[in-house]
């Protein structure tokens, strides 16, 4: 072989090695986030994290395709299937989607008895490629904040505890041996309700990992929004209230027994479900005028908000509904297409 041919062969091999190295680096690299980035809202995560809006797109669990992970435009157009996993607790950053795999709860799951093969915490590129395992154990209440993910994780013979991991899944750390919900993370503090010790709003400093009581009381599902904390008061028949961030000036907003609530991204409306037997209903209250409106009578759950819409489901899990966040149109069914009947990557107009 001539010297020129040897040189060309060497250059070709070097090029192949370089291209392969760059490709492997790119698919394995984890792109960093701004430390203040939030993967989803606290209100959505309390309600199951089935919808998550990011940069003009809504990522959601499609009940018409047994909970598979889908995306659509923020105006509910152009649907696309991302992955066949049944996805819950969806969080999204600039590059990835994080979710809980809940295939063990699928209606058409042939491997339901192999629960541990059908659960876990995963990350996937927004184009549906490069699925990455974050945690193999069953989990819930996945919350993305900055470059860290927080979640409840079940380990056999141990229990359901609070963990933290890096977004690349390389450093899992046990935070609390309690099943606390990590939805409210503000200024490097995790605020949570401890069912083990009390129902006060407690905190954990995420640098020193010290804990303490922020506000004493009997609370559930605290949402920190602007200058208030919205919550359910367990001592007052599960009414919905708000108070200042320091706990002062508590005010009753909904003096009925409620099962869930959420706040629109504008902060103007609070949507809630009244849990009162034959008088059950889903409602909306205008937080500026305090006027209330009944949307539908009956039993509903899992209220999710995006910039323009509010989504919720009936209690029997048969139907999903949507309404404009500002109430400009009436409730109507939300019926996205089932793209599994066609091609998984097909886009619907």
**Helix percentage:** under 10%
Structural class: mainly beta
Ranges with pLDDT <50 over ≥5 residues? 17-26, 111-116, 344-349
How large, in whole angstroms, is the Cα Rg?
A: 23 Å
The H-and-E topology, N to C, reads as HHEEEEEEEEEEEEEEEEEEEEEEEEEEEE
- Average pLDDT number: 89
Structural shape: globular
The proportion of residues in beta strands is over 45%
Count of helical regions:
2
Alpha-carbon distance between the termini?
Answer: 58 Å
How many β-strands, per DSSP? Answer: 28
Biggest pleated-sheet summary = 8 strands, antiparallel
Q: Could you explain how this protein is built, in words?
A:
Strands 1, 2, 3, 4, 5, 6, 7 and 28 form an 8-stranded antiparallel beta sheet that branches. The chain has 2 helices and 28 strands. The longest helix is centred in the first third of the chain and has 26 residues, at 3-28. 9% of the residues lie in helices and 46% in strands. 38% of the residues are buried. The chain has helices at 3-28, 42-46; strands at residues 51-54, 57-62, 68-73, 79-92, 96-102, 119-125, 132-135, 139-145, 148-155, 159-166, 173-176, 184-186, 189-193, 201-205, 211-215, 219-225, 228-233, 239-244, 251-254, 258-263, 269-274, 281-286, 292-297, 300-305, 309-314, 320-324, 332-333, 347-348. The chain has 349 residues and is mostly beta strands.
